[in-house]
Each structure stands twice: as structure tokens, then as C-alpha cells.
Amino acid sequence: MSLIIKWNKSAINQLIKAVEYIEEDSPQNAEKVRNNILLEISKLTAHPEKYNPDKYHVNNDGSFRAFELHRYRISYRYTKNEIRIIRIRHTKRNPKNY
Question: I need a labelling partner for 44 at 20 to 30 A (CA). Which of 3, 21, 84, 87 fits?
């Protein structure tokens, strides 16, 4: 069985807001960031354990993982059936207040 990727609504909104913010200065960079994040997320279906467990997730059983790309931290949860994208935030923001 292959893994499927699902997104939390909040994560979708966070990606949209990030891209819109970058577009204010550079539409080309906004497209690059969006495409690179989506490509890296799509690669998770082949290697879901590629990234380390999320150090900010309290009581993490190892299924919550995260990676950084273009100063954005992408948090996801890996189970035997799916990869759930939980949050996308800028790395300069405090994860507890986001």
C-alpha cells in the first residue's frame, strides 16, 4: 500500500499566506518557494522517515517529524497509511505562539 498525503486546513492556509507574502517582493521567488516545498512534501511518500522527529512536538512518539526549506519549517505526521501535513511556519517565529 502506498502512502497518501493529506493536509490540515491550517497548513494549506499557512502555505498560501507565505506565498502571498513572498509575492509582494518577488512573484518568481514565491513560485520557487511554493514549488520546492510541494516537491519536497511529495518525496515523503517514498521516504517518510527521511527527516528527524519534530523536536518541538511534546511527547513525540517519533511519528511527528519536521524539516526546513527556504526558512520555512514543515511539520508532518507519518503513519502507516498517510502523511499528514500539520503546519508550515517561518523559522523566525516561535512555534509555541504560531
Answer: 21
